[in-house]
Amino acid sequence: MIKTEIASKLFLRPSSRSPELESLTELVEEDITTMEFLEDPQAADDSSGSESDSDTSVVEEPPEIMDPEYYMKMVVFKVNVICYPTSKGKKAYDFDNRSKIVCIGCRSCTDFFNPSLDELNDVPEDQRIIKRDDISKEDFRALLKLLYPMSFTLTRTLSDDEWISVLKVSTRWIMLDIRRMAIEHLTHASLPLADRIILARECSIISWLRSAYLELVSQLSSHDEHTTETIGLETTFKLHRARESLFPLGQFDERAMNSEIEEEFREVLGTLSRRSEIELAVLAHKYGVSEWRKSAFIALARRHKLISYTEAQLLGFETAIRLCGVRELRRSIGTARAVELELNWDFDALESYTAVQRVAMARGHEVCDWFVEALSELVQQKETLSVPEARDLGLPTAIALCLCRARHFSSKVSADEEGYRQALELEFGDELEQVEAAGRELLSQSELLRLEEEQKLEEKRQLEHELRLEERSEEREMQGEKEGRRGEQSEGESVVEN
Predict the structure, then answer these.
(1) For a Cys staple, 439 with which of 6, 40, 185, 204, CB 3.0–4.6 Å?
(2) pLDDT digits (tens, 9 = 90+) for 181-227
(3) DSSP code string of 135-168
């Protein structure tokens, strides 16, 4: 095209050209020929061919290649109404459906989002949104702060609360490297033991759970409302049970133990009323509780004051006479044994109740003496309360009883870490096994996802390899056809020359 335009201006009248113009024309023709050779390298290779060759080859521009590390696509996470654009590139974190979420310097990854991203393959990039309602926006922001720091520093400046958020999200989304980073940081952080127990349960960290229980079980000699509210009443009670397994139960100082009960239950006892021995005996018969009736008779037999006529009327004269016999026998066989021999017929007509049941009944009837009596019986028994008994009794009451025992035996128990460890294994064995199994399952699930993703990647590589082979085969065929046409053209030109 350039040659035609120039020729229209320089070569319209060949007969009228001057020698100088003729020389200039030859130079222009030579330059134009050189330009054509530069535009078409194939023409330079076939310079020996005919100038009339009309078969011009088209040079295709090479396809654009996206850098595998630094070219980052985008995907938007919508967490509790807030949208967060994140990259899909491999250099920071890769949320690509055919790659994995990989941190700089980290080796493992997660395929947690593959199903969601597979659904977005045909969606325009600016419309790719993954909705997540399983975490809070604060937790997700903490994760982004770790993955995309706003300052160029090697030290990660996350607070302990932010690391806790990172731990929760990385556990839920199976981001094992990030999870390990969070665990490593928080292991050395100053977290309350109760908070560490909750995190250990939620994120399946067995080492934290065991160490926190072991440290906490030796600190249960006083009330800690934060600990009890955080880990729960039942867990607190079970920690006390583990601690009590090392107590020399049965070696009680009854008077000292009753003083502990009076001190521990001062507020409750202030709402109950105290009764005389005669009133207690009459009320026990009225409510039909043999244990209360027996304890009232023992108290009457031990008192120095004799039974009056009015009291005998309230008790019944036959019962009063038998009580006089008890007072004579008690010196030889003991008060309790004498009461059983003389008044057994009275007890047979009444119902027997456990100490746990009698605590609730004493509260219902608002009798302070019966309440203290039942608690004293519970706290002095040789076996610790079972969990079902503690539930029936009321966990706060059961824990308070454990504190009474803990204070009573605090000077008689040496700190034996191995003993505590074994007691905790017995008391929390099921929970510890569940947490440990959940941790193993988390790793197994990640490994399974990794193997599935490797299989997908292998299938992708195989498909890409087959496509490349097909493309090369097509290129060879096209090249052969082109060389064939050039050979035919060369033969035709040779025939013309001859």
Answers:
(1) 204
(2) 999 999 999 999 999 999 999 999 999 999 999 988 877 666 678 88
(3) S-HHHHHHHHHHHS-SS--SS----HHHHHHHHH
